[in-house]
TrEMBL record:
Identification of the protein by name: Beta-lactamase enzyme family protein
Domain Beta-lactamase class A catalytic: start-end pairs: 76-276
Domain of life per record: Bacteria
Disordered, as annotated region: 22-50
A Pfam family hit: Beta-lactamase2
Matches recorded under InterPro entries: Beta-lactam/transpept-like, Beta-lactam_cat, Beta-lactam_class-A
Amino acid sequence: MPNRIGTTLAATSVVIALAGCGQTDPPEPDVAAPSGAEGSAPTGECLPTPAADVTTAEGWIGYLAENSDTVAVAVHDGNGGSFEQRPDERQPLASAVKVVHLAAYARAVAAGELSPDERVPLTDWERWHLPDTDGGAHPRALERLGVNDPEDTVTLDEMVSAMIQESDNAVPDYLRDRLGDDALREAAAQGGWDDFTPPTMLGNTLALLDPTLDDSSAVRDAARRYASDPAYRAEVVQNPVPEDLAARVDRVQRFDNTGSAAELTDLHRAIADGSFGAGSDLARTHLEWQPSTVPGFEGIGFKGGSLPGVLTDAITFRRDDGTIATTVMLASGMSDSDYAGAFESFAHQEMLFTAANDPDFLERIRCAM
């Protein structure tokens, strides 16, 4: 999916597509004139709840009301207004989890343990890459970086940019292998996310292809074997994609990649306001990789993800007046039609922006619940 700059409230588009099974990070937010604000009622006056419609910001109010048991939302507008729905419930995160890997990387750079200018052989990166399972994210990253020779090298910071901008799935596993699980847990905890369990993006994908990988340990071992054993890697790449792959997507939830809206909110806010500490600036630069051109906003940071039936987004808005708004939505169990409509329109991101920046719209959401 291309970036939809100036069109939707989205984070960069990334697809993990395995024969029609996709994982995506939405494009960048358009904060110019959110159409979802039409019909907003004065604060304290409740209008009828609109019909559920995932293709419009207003229709998402109805969707949230009808699906309160499968959607987690946390909106804090930075001015005292907030709305939370199931903020502490664990939900599938898809690529939204990569903010933790980013935080661990930034922390390691700040401590002098990693250098963003280190040259990394492309072959080291691609040991963790399973071709044709990311909707073209990895090839798009290589194209942006001008990498077209297997003997090329890239900087470590360029690799991290691919994890955030195109949502490359190999980079988080590469970083986990280099930094270790404790570094990821400590980075998450530094941002207010306790008891984080590091996932493996490669291992989870391998588990979709191979049902015999039935626990977290086996999944992690398979990822390491893929990265270190050329014969196993060649075997996996040659195996056909199972026809029932989409039906296996719920297996991903069994292998660690879950979290809550509150946990994502805490980490994104800590990076946005600098309370994360050493590494905040570098992490924030990556999340705000597209400079804001909208008056009143100094920066917009974002990272989201998607799998069939799962749509996730975390967006922070740093305003010129020093206030910071945070918005997170974690939706699961979406029907095929709703997922397709949401993924095509990205109207949920417009809904999140409007909720964070229009108190009347936020009140409409609250009224509907």
